[in-house]
């Protein structure tokens, strides 16, 4: 899959240095959903193209990935895609409905429905993501590193059972109790697909990876350690093992388990280089729990982006001071929201870079 042409030399590697615990020139900053609806140019492009058409068309995915970099002095790009491309590749229809979000009209309601999934050939149906990553590496001209990503098994399983997003994940949680063996089967099937997918992204040129366990917040600590953590560990271990055996350089990997602040110590033992924090976690407490050898990412409340510029600047500066310059990547504690003022992104990025 990889382009014959060598990739441009990386000029700003602060993100990768921070992930590896090396000295940085400045605290690196990027934002989850930085290519998204808060940008008027993204809205314009979306008027002409369906959401998943943008994901599946490398030229469009690259254009959207580049949009925030034209405006802001960010230290990373993240390929424009969606966590639900894996369910699509497994044969599940996913539609993006305006004002609603993702809808899966034929969810996996009962274990019998698992037979509808098509893991064979799933990776080949995701080749457009690899193509977009390779194209993007060239378009970046070495400006900043490119991040690839995936949804985590429990989070994907939740969408696939609920038929979309859910405030409670009650149907998916019922599976864990009612069908524990089938739940393990489901989570293992998703884990297999995710490892393949991440390996493909690295081969295509991704310089860092992030695993989004966005629905961890619906699990108790006990449930997270049973239904989240073992599969997250398997993703990291199997991916590193595969890359090592093929003599492909291992890239840093971030775990972002939103709402799993109760299990930071356990997360820190899964082998990930970076742990993402949501905005409910205190940076100083988090550092004391995970120790000095893991990088932390986060964790400004996305709602703070609606404050006036001086307030936002002060909150951002205070946050960076709490985390410090070593082993830290600045970000929000979840994705940027659609009405966020453009000026807030400018203030955030500048404040992070000037804080230390």
UniProtKB/TrEMBL annotation:
GO cellular component, one term: cytosol
Keyword annotations of the record: Cytoplasm, Decarboxylase, Heme biosynthesis, Lyase, Porphyrin biosynthesis
Pathway the protein acts in: Porphyrin-containing compound metabolism; protoporphyrin-IX biosynthesis; coproporphyrinogen-III from 5-aminolevulinate: step 4/4
A Pfam family reported for this protein in Swiss-Prot or TrEMBL: URO-D
SUPFAM superfamilies reported in the protein's UniProt record: UROD/MetE-like
The keyword Lyase appears for this protein: yes
Localization per record: Cytoplasm, Cytosol
One GO term of the biological process aspect: protoporphyrinogen IX biosynthetic process
Gene3D superfamilies: 3.20.20.210
Domain Uroporphyrinogen decarboxylase (URO-D), chain residue ranges per copy: 28-37, 147-163
Enzyme class, UniProt record, top EC level: lyase
Keyword Cytoplasm: yes
Enzyme nomenclature, EC number: 4.1.1.37
Superkingdom: Eukaryota
Record's catalysed reaction(s): uroporphyrinogen III + 4 H(+) = coproporphyrinogen III + 4 CO2
Function: Catalyzes the decarboxylation of four acetate groups of uroporphyrinogen-III to yield coproporphyrinogen-III.
Quaternary structure annotation from Swiss-Prot or TrEMBL: Homodimer.
Family affiliation: Belongs to the uroporphyrinogen decarboxylase family.
Protein name in the entry: Uroporphyrinogen decarboxylase
Species assigned in the record: Drosophila rhopaloa (Fruit fly)
Gene name of the record: LOC108040822
């Amino acid at each position: 899959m990889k382009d014959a042409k060598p990739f441009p030399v990386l000029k700003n590697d602060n993100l990768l240095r921070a992930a590896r615990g090396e000295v940085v020139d400045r605290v690196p900053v990027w934002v989850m959903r930085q290519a998204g609806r808060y940008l008027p140019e993204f809205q314009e492009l979306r008027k002409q193209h369906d959401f998943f058409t943008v994901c599946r068309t490398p030229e469009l995915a690259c254009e959207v990935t580049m949009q925030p970099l034209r405006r802001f002095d960010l230290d990373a790009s993240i390929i424009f895609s969606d966590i639900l491309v894996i369910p699509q590749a497994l044969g599940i229809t996913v539609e993006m409905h305006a004002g609603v979000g993702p809808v899966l009209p034929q969810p996996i309601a009962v274990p019998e429905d698992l037979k509808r999934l098509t893991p064979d050939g799933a990776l080949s149906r995701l080749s457009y993501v690899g193509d977009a990553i390779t194209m993007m590496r060239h378009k970046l001209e070495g400006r900043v590193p490119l991040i690839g990503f995936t949804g985590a098994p429990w989070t994907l399983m939740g969408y696939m059972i609920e038929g979309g997003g859910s405030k409670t994940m009650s149907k998916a949680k019922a599976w864990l109790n009612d069908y524990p063996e089938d739940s393990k089967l489901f989570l293992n099937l998703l884990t297999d697909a995710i490892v393949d997918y991440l390996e493909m992204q690295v081969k295509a040129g991704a310089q860092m990876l992030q695993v989004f366990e966005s629905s961890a917040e619906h699990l108790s600590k006990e449930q997270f350690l049973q239904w989240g953590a073992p599969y997250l560990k398997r993703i990291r271990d199997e991916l590193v093992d595969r890359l090592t055996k093929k003599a492909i350089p291992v890239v840093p990997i971030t775990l972002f388990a939103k709402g799993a602040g109760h299990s930071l110590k356990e997360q820190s033992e899964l082998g990930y280089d970076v742990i993402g924090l949501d905005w409910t976690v205190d940076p100083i407490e988090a550092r004391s729990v995970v120790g000095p050898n893991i990088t932390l990412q986060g964790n400004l409340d996305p709602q703070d982006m609606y404050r006036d510029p001086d307030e936002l600047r002060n909150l951002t500066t205070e946050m960076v001071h709490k985390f410090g310059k070593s082993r830290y990547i600045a970000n929000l504690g979840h994705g940027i929201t659609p009405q966020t003022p453009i000026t807030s992104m400018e203030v955030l990025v500048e404040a992070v870079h000037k804080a230390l």
